[in-house]
Description:
By secondary structure, the protein is α/β, with parallel strands linked by helices. The chain folds into three domains: 1-36; 42-180 and 251-344, Rossmann fold (3-Layer(aba) Sandwich), CATH 3.40.50; 183-248, no CATH class. It has twelve helices and eight strands. The chain has helices at residues 5-36, 90-98, 123-138, 160-166, 181-195, 200-218, 223-229, 239-248, 278-289, 310-313, 316-325, 335-344, and strands spanning 42-50, 53-61, 69-75, 101-106, 143-153, 172-175, 265-272, 295-304. Strands 1-2-4-3-5-6-7-8 form an eight-stranded mixed β-sheet, with helices on both faces.
Amino acid sequence: MCPKIQPRRRGLRATVWSLVTVLVVAAGLTGAVLRQNSYxxxxxxxxxxxxxxxLNGVLAAPKDGxxxxxxxxxxHGDGPIDATHDDGYKPMWEAxxxxxxxxLSWDKPGVAGAPGDWLDQSMDDRANEAAAAIAxxxxxxxxxxxxIGLWGAxxxxxxxxxxxxxxxxxxxxxxxxxxxxxxxxxxxxxxELRADGASAARTKAEIAKSDHTRxxxxxxxxxxxxxxxxxxxxxxxxxxxxxxxSKNYTADATQDLPALRxxxxxxxxxxxxxxxxxxxxxxxxxxxxxxxxxxTVKRYPDAAHSLLKRSIEQSDLKTTLTALFAPRSLFxxxxxxxxxxxxxxxxxxxxxxx
Length: 354
C-alpha cells in the first residue's frame, strides 16, 4: 500500500479540472464574442478611383438573394477614421442590410495605409470624394442606382448637403451634425468648461484664448504665429491640424442645406451632446427643410454625441466590454431600429412613402 500517493493524485486531479474549467470558460467567452461580432451581411473590400488615387473601401451587402440593393454611402466625422470605424459601423450596416440596403465606406486618406492625408482636405474635397464614390456605385450591377443615399456624422454635416448639390441622392441620415463651425466650437468649449466645473476666471481666460485664435485664423496666420501667440504652448495643436482648421473654420451648412429640400432626411440628435448645439441644429434643419415635408427628427435622451449610450461612453471599460460582448447595445435605445425603419419606409424610387 502507498497511502501517500493519494493526496498527490487528488491534487493533480483538482489542478486538471481547474484547468479544464478555465478552458471551458475561455472557450465560452470566445464563442460569445465571435457570435456577438458576427453580422448577417456580406462584407468585402473594394477599390474606388478618385482624383488620380484609390479610395480603399468596404462594401457590406445584404444576404437576401436579391440581385440589386439600395445603398447607404457613409461620410465620416472628424479624425483619422478607417472604413469600418474600428468595426463601430457594423451594427448600423447590419440594420441597413435588414432593410435591403448595402453600405459603402472607405478609409480616410492616410488612414490604414490609404494614400493621401485627410488633414489636407476641405469640406468640398470630402464632398467630391463622396460624389465619386456614388458615381462608382451607380456603375455597379448589384446596386440600384435610384436608391443611393448618404449617412454622415458630426463633421459630415458640412459635407452631406454639398454632395447633394453635386449629384442626386435619394435620402440622407444626418447624425449629430453641426450648422456653423465657429458656433459649434464655442458651444463645445463652454460645454466642456461647465462639465469640468471651471471657475469664472478660467472660463473668461479660455474664451479670450479662443477669440485670439479666431483672430489668427481670420488673418491667415501660420502655425508658428499661433504657437507664439499661445505663449509657446501648442496645447496639442499640430501644423497639419492647424492647416486643416484654417481650410475649414468658415464652414456653415446654412447656405448648402437647401440642396436637401424634397429629399427624405432623418436627423438624429443626442440628449447629452457637448460637441454640437442640437437645438441650433434642429432649428437650422427645420428652417431649411420643413417646407418640403421630408424631414424626420429623432431625439435620443440617453445618448452622447456619438449616439452611444451616455452611461457606456463615459467609461472606457464599459465601452470595451460592451463592444466585445454586445456591440449592438452600444447605441442609444431605438437608434438602430429607427434607421432601419427609415430605410424601409422609402419607396422603390428612394422617396419617402406617405
